[in-house]
Amino acid sequence: MSYRIDETDRKILIELQKDADRSLDEIAKAAGSSKTPVWNRIRKMREAGIIGRQTVELDAEALGFEATFFVLIRTSEHEADWQRRFLEALRRRPEVQEAHRLAGDIDYILKVRVKNARAYDAFYQALISEVRVHNVTALLSMEELKSTGALPL
Q: What residues does the HTH asnC-type domain cover (predicted)?
């Protein structure tokens, strides 16, 4: 389904990105509209796939996940079977918050959130036991300066 967003849709999306748990009345007021038209626009944007599933943002540190590692992976294997096994291994690992295939010297970068360095080592050992990689470099984030999933609408 094709859906072209307009300025009112943008305002709605900006408000939803700030806090999707707010009431429809609050979102409508902030977007300069009323409840029913905003509800209809949200429904249409969901149907079009512009708005995906809604989740809850958790405080990782409050839950004991104090370490974030950025894992740079180089591989000498680029066959479809290896890539399939690698992707399956990543999908089974809840520690992997993000995974990207890159252009350049590094083949993949992972964002891995764990409780501590020992937990990272367990993740690393499990990963390399499942798929062969040429080189792995783990970078520990000392401080998160900015993190957002919000798009710059």
A: 5-66
Looking at domain 7-47, its CATH architecture is Orthogonal Bundle (1.10)
d(CA 106, CA 70): 12
What pTM did the predictor assign? Answer: 0.88
38-50, pLDDT tens digit by residue? 999 999 999 999 9
Which DSSP string corresponds to 81-147?
Answer: HHHHHHHHHHHT-TTEEEEEE-SSS-SEEEEEEESSHHHHHHHHHHHHHHS--SEEEEEE-S-----
Residue 138 φ/ψ, nearest 5 degrees: -110, 130
Q: Assess whether pLDDT exceeds 70 at residue 1.
A: no
CATH class entry, domain 61-140: alpha beta
